[in-house]
Amino acid sequence: MVKEFTRSFLGPDGFLVRIEETSVVLPDGSKWRTGAELRDSFHLTKYATADLFVPCGGRPNSVTTENVKHLFDASGKPKFRMIVEGANLFLSDGARAVLENAGVHVFKDASTNKGGVCSSSLEVFSALALPEREHAKLMAYDPDTASEPPEFYATYVQQILDIVIENSRQEFKAIWACSQEEGVHKVDATRKLSVKINKMCDNIQEQFKSGMMTEQEKQQLVRGVLLKAVPPLMIEHLGVDGILARVPENYVGSIVAAWVASRFVYQYGISASEVSFFFFMRSLITCGDYKATATAGAGGQAKRPAEGEEKAGVRSAEEGRSAVRQRLG
After folding, report:
1. Which of 79, 161, 172, 318 is the most buried (most CB within 10 A)?
2. DSSP one-letter string for 142-203
3. Hey, where are the domains in the chain?
């Protein structure tokens, strides 16, 4: 705990302030009624300066056009080179514009907070996909009664982290490319990216319902995308057939649409044409031209085909992923 830190280790200009303290005086002579007040405004003090600022808490609009001047030093130079909004709405739109115009790399909350949405949706997915008893056995963990989580749980969590990291990498590349190629602020690039992905996602789900795709094309797309969008552990344990048998169709449709929309925009950019999308979709359906290779066997365990069982044109899950990576890489 921070409050246990020994103040004798502090340097001449160092200080430790607990939030419950009152009548706080800092080395520069500035006075604060409470430690909590200092905590809430510390980013506006002269002590807050760094290459990277990642605010992960605070009230909405903690920095506005009225107080953003405090993020600059006396010479007018920004006190932070990069700001990554870990907290929602920490900066107002006006403050973001002032900072970006001054050369600060600002990454908006809508892009930087997607990891939480992704991890929570995959947590819900596991509860939908696994039978209740299996979920209790494989995914439930009480640290007060068990020293280590189940191996399945630990592996699933790590695979979710891998997905979040890859999504973040792709999001950053798309934002940076849009900013550099179109000359727009990175905050504006995030908005464009979100609008494009959300619109495409809605359109794809509408196409699923409209009947414009044949059932074969739909199945090829859904199965192929699930092999890439879902943590591999769940594919190995249930197989695509097992997932489709338990997870509601609309939830599966959301997963597929979100993955297709985001990966298309990440690869081809915000201004990509309908022609590019046509070829992108065709590559997915072509690569998805195989049956699920892990089907539920006895006891719900994954069952792999024996050597030689695969027919021409049918690929394993691993080969399918490799083929898609080669096509889309």
Report:
1. 79
2. -TTT-SS--HHHHHHHHHHHHHHHHHHHHHHHHHHHHHHHH---HHHHHHHHHHHHHHHHHH
3. 2-111, 173-328
